[in-house]
Design brief:
The chain has 136 residues and is mostly helical. The protein has helices at 21-24, 31-48, 61-76, 90-100, 117-135, and strands at 53-58, 104-109. Helix content is 50%, strand content 9%. The two termini are 22 Å apart. Residues 1-8 and 20-25 have low confidence and may be disordered.
Length: 136
């Protein structure tokens, strides 16, 4: 995690969430699975709080490209890649699609580990989740 001296780690905005990795990523404990699960969680929290327009900032081009470009093709192809292999994160993407239903979503790519406060806080919360999992 990049250390940002301007980031007050004691401050936790009320809608930010840090979950143990076991709860956050039930199937695969990979960066991609965590990114997909985090976006789905953000969408569910937005819906629970009556938010209908959501901007998702992520440093994952994989997530953005998957949602905007590849998922429609995978679905049309029976959730197979162009090589005929099953889509690895199909279940996670299906959960994301369900969570985003009814929301107007804008995807925004941000550079990772560049001192962007929200991205740094996300990394910090992810680290907290990992640490909580390792203690339990």
């Amino acid at each position: 995690m990049t250390e940002n001296k301007n980031l007050d780690k004691s401050y936790k905005p009320p809608r930010n969430t840090s979950l143990p990795k076991v709860k956050a990523v039930r199937r695969r404990q990979t960066n991609n699975a965590a990114e997909i699960s985090a976006a789905a969680l953000a969408a569910r929290k937005a819906s629970e709080n009556g938010i209908s327009h959501l901007r998702i900032n992520t440093d994952s081009k994989f997530l953005i490209d998957s949602y905007n470009k590849w998922i429609p093709h995978w679905e049309a192809n029976g959730w197979k890649t162009t090589n005929g292999k099953p889509v690895v994160y199909r279940t996670e993407f299906e959960e994301l699609r369900k969570a985003l239903e009814g929301l107007d979503v804008t995807w925004n790519h941000v550079s990772g580990h560049q001192g962007i406060e929200g991205n740094e806080m996300t990394d910090y919360l992810a680290q907290m989740g990992i640490n909580r999992s390792n203690v339990a």
